[in-house]
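Troubleshooting entry. The earlier prediction with (2S)-2-hydroxybutanedioic acid gave an output that would not parse, so I re-checked the input for stray whitespace and re-submitted. Clean input:
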Amino acid sequence: MFQHVETAPPDAILGLNEAFRNDPSPEKINLSVGVYKDEKGGTPVLKCVKEAEKRLLETESTKSYLPIDGRASYNSAVRSLLFGTEHEVVTTNRAVTVQTPGGTGALRVAGDFIAANFPGASLWLSQPTWPNHPNIFTAAGVPLKTYAYFNKATNGLDFDGMLSALKGADKGDVVLLHGCCHNPTGIDPTPQQWKTIADLIQEKELLPLLDFAYQGFGEGLSEDASGLREIARSGQEMLICSSFSKNFGLYNERVGALTAVAPGQAEAIAVLSQMKKVIRSNYSNPPTHGAAVVETVLTDDSLRTMWEEELAHMRNRINGIRKLFVDKISACGIDQDFSFIQQQNGMFSFSGLNQMQVDQLRSEMSIYIVGSGRINVAGISEANVDRLCEGIKKVTS
Ligand code: LMR
């Protein structure tokens, strides 16, 4: 029966992580998967999470099913984190949220919801984007188109290219935007550019879908939501996929959410019913633990303060590493200019290294970088930066 089944290629990111695990080199360096690492190369559980888990262990009284859309108070805490508590979107009840297994789960629910309710609409992805985006939306049956995003010559945003592509979108098409810390480039629009994007979306009557997996890793929790809040103008509809893998370090608990902002409360109720229909036929209802942790931290003053401090520490360490990396690169006499890495945001940098250089780094030095040249900056440390620069010098000279 299974003889005809062909072996699928390994995943562009998680496949590399597996190869890293199997590499016996004691000096191996993993800059592939987007997981925060501390100074010692570990990914410890945040203190606020440990504290919330202690409380939950004492108070948990049942393992019965959650509702299809998850924990109501978690969903409400997610909306407040996205928009702030006083935002019109929140106070008029025109936004609805469903708890999902991770940000990927949110994207897939969004994809199924779009396929079922927006027949004929295309979904526009930035070029490049997270390699799992096309997988998810193709699996959901949503036709894909791409818009320019990265300008190779300037290592910056190709804003004109982006606008001119999106001007070709049809009314009702969906535009996927990275809310902050663009994955894989680390390049985000400026506030003025967000304004122009929001104008275009409004004018062309497009549906924005924000992938928001790194809130707090760019400049801060509310600063990173400024693009999203610019788009959420009066009457504007949108979808937002949240992930708490990175900013709560809850990777393996799979904690995310899909928020839909409708024109009014009646439409929001209908949208919620459709999202629940999609979920029921997929994973039925979400798991409790990770969402209960996030809800506990977000709704308790002292735990929330602790979280914001821990998140600021992660953000500051990454920014410090960007500077260290750029300084070390220029100190070791590499001709190529890598100074743009300090202008990029969040966990990732688009290094400009090509597939051949990336392959050489892996095969000759056990340094693991995604094929596109994307580097997880958080994987760099005082302990491995010299060896990394040595490798980059070798493959670029
Ligand atoms: C990444 O881009 O490395 C992360 O979002 C992890 C993943 O699932 O790919």
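This one parsed fine. The domain at 14-45+303-396 is CATH 3.90.1150.10 (Aspartate Aminotransferase, domain 1).
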